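**User:** Once you have settled down, spend some time on the protein underneath, comparing sequence with structure tokens, and judge whether sequence predicts the tokens.
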Amino acid sequence: MTSETFQVLDYLQTDVLENSYDSLRVLNVERNGNIIYTCKDNKGNVFFGLYDYQTKQNEHLYTFEKDLQVISCSVNRERTLLAASLVQAAKDGRRNELQPGSKCLTLLVEIHPVNNVKVLKAVDSCIWVQFLYPHVESHPLPENHLLLISEEKYIEQFHVQVIQEDGNKVVIKNSGHLPRERVAEDFVWAQWDMSEQRLYYIDLKKSRSILKCIQFYSNEHFTVMFEAPLDISLSDSGFKLVNFGCDDLRDQEKLSKHLTLYVFTNRTGSLCVCYCPNIDSWERITYSVFYFHKGHSKTFTVALGSVDSRVTKGITFLNLVPQSICSHDRGLGRCDVRDLGKVRTNKHPDLICHSLFLTGNNEVIDMLPHRPFQSLSGPLVLDGGSGKLYRVLLNQSYLLEFLRDTRLDCERMALLHCVLSCGRDPRRLEAKIIQWISENISACHSFDLIQEFIIASSYWSIYPETSNMDKLLPYSSLLTWNTEIPGITLVTEEIPLPLMKVHSFKGYWEKLNSNLEYAKYSKPHLHYNNGVVRREWHSLISEEKTGKRSSLVYVRNILDNAIKVISNLQAKTLEPRLTPLLQEEDNHQRLLMGLVSGLRAVWVLMVSELKDHLLRHLQGVEKKKIEQMVLDYISKLLDLICQILEASWRKHNLHPWVLHFNRRASAAEFAVFHIMTRILEATRSLFLPLPPGFHTLHTILGVHCLPLHNLLHYIDNGVLLLTETAVTRLMKDLDNTEKNEKLKFSIIVRLPPRIGQKICRLWDHPMSSNIISRNHVKRLLQDYSKQPRSSVMDKSSFSLEFLPLNYFIEILTDVESSNPALYAFEGHDNVDAKFVEEAALKHTTMLLGL
């Protein structure tokens, strides 16, 4: 974990604050990133300052020449109005004299320039203030909207109109009567979402906790968007605010006794509530995550063991999109806020193995402040002890180091997803992960490392393109996880879905409503799998074996898809590859005949099926964008396999001459052959595509590395797939020694008939002539019906008096002459009855040993 620290005291330029750094306190972080802070001089005067996030400069806003304690403060977008809530601590038992009968004063100050001060509230209860920052153009707003949150459990909105006088002087219009309205009341908990301008709050109805959300818009209107029951225990005497400025966190013991509850959302329509009840014992912590967009909750119980006194006793949820973190005194539990594309405690909340739990004296824990810290909007964290503001990020280098060192499969799984989801410099990350995988290829027993890496990396590469990707594409190779995670117990329960209070949705709310509809009607079939591709592939294999021809339109579509994927992949390849992949050229005529080889059929079929799948379920996305997403996704699958093989090729320093058969295998070739076999195993069970040239290279290395009986066993069981390119090279490279003849014959008899006939023409050997002759005779006589024949034969055409052969050749000649166009051997004009006769005689001679 890394942090960018806003140490505002390093930038203060006000001379009177030279000796007052100890009193500096961050009060609020506005939507535009500007930080509002306060500090006192040696006379007790309170100074308000603003740190501009864009310019990195400080600006003095206002000074109260009284010794006051600031509860809350907010500045409007134009920096013309300052709202502040203050109290004066009692001294020597005397009552606060801010205003008779009050302890808290809420003021609205004109600060452009400093001018009038209006009292909004003077009450005994504490008040918090927050200006709204609507989504509008950069021009000044004629009306500002200010929220007042009262300790008496109500929220009001003030509408403040401003006008310009005497040039640039900004003053409040009709300051004597500011319109206001009640937004919420009788609540026990409230959270402000600064970036999205939403108010979440909980009220109690018949002792039942109801979570509500109000969306504020650029005009003065606001709308209650949903209500959702929460199965948690809250007291109507309690009161807690989240993200309404920065709390004074000096009372550590009091802080540890409060419940912790946060709402997290993200742009894909996720809605997650993270909740931890009051903590009585620090030996274990229980916290729950309510995935409202999915309709279930997960409750985690974490055994902490002994308590380290130097670590704060508190729990905080941090929203690090696309992860969230739950931090407590002895460790971290990671939650993913998207399903995080949705909010979740796991990379995807269905499996606990996608959550990362760090415990003990861990480096990650040591990086966090050992004083109370407060989670603000997004990844901002306030260190209550030092007054420093942090932006917390995940440290990819440390995560990679942790991935190399950990020995638990569950941590390897979670770390793999965590690193890939960070999204910063994915090419470099993938290279480091591939290096680790190649060194730990058999390290994991609960899942296949190559499988998980390919599926997860492909998913996260396309995830930012659109929402709902987690419903439509696989994000993990696992469907279940039954292995216990030490010190962690998990209970999953169904929860009621939120009730939407509006009927017209835009943006986030449209996506949330879509997620709720999905959860309500439970459509598991939306998840894409390669089952259809598998069926189509088996259909093509059957056609190849039986000699049937596929539709020309269908095969042309396959060819077009292949060209698009290869072009897309090559366009994204920045460096030349050493491995001989993506270099095979498919014979166009062979594709038109329906002879689609396995190395290409899987992924070109996948292009069509995946595109149809996304077109059915991605509503509102242009067809052209979906087609490009499909090309990018499948190109990514192929590219990852190429990267794994490329890394192994470079590591073992292989050279192009390994593609020749007339040489012995080296130890490096054995290592690369092993990696390729593991890749094949990983892709086969999920029916994932392989790049063109993979099977050819795999077969060549297999011939080098395996004895004949093992080689044939690999071929017969589908581990090695005989491609035309590999077999052609084998026939040309190897001479006709007895050992090589046995190998060639064993290969030829295992080829599909059409490819086998083509390969036999390349081998000048009596055995190949015999095979050609047998195939030719089979084709001629498959529809032959015996006809009456003359008993007198013309013997002038025969040189031998071997009557059975003479009679047989005469029949073949008659059949050939009856329809020469039908029975001509394709691509081999000199195969005829005479060729068959010569081959038969040679074969008989060999059998008789003559």
Q: What stands out?
A: The first strand starts at residue 2 and ends at 6.
